Amino acid sequence: MARGHQKIQSQQKNAKKQADLKKAKGHDQKTAAKAALVYTCGVCKSQMPDPKTFKQHFESKHPKSPLPPELVDVEA
């Protein structure tokens, strides 16, 4: 029974360490959303998550500009 107190202290210390690691990691919704934005419009520099959205954006916002080559075969 002498090791019971030591076990509790060790568990508390480990829980605090894990909480500090989780806090330092900084996983939040904002960084995850930023990582998902992989396509950047060359005209206005706005970012889109997928090629379909990128093509729709380009056709509606920049109709006079020529379509970038990576969007030619994408179906909107």
TrEMBL record:
Keyword tags: Cytoplasm, Metal-binding, Nucleus, Repressor, Translation regulation, Zinc, Zinc-finger
Residues spanning the membrane: none
Keyword Zinc: yes
Any one of the GO BP annotations: regulation of translation
Cytoplasm keyword on record: yes
Segments of skewed composition (Basic and acidic residues): 17-31, 52-62
Chain ranges of the C2H2-type domain: 39-61
Protein name per the record: Zinc finger protein 706
Organism from which the protein derives: Alosa alosa
Record lineage: Eukaryota, Metazoa, Chordata, Craniata, Vertebrata
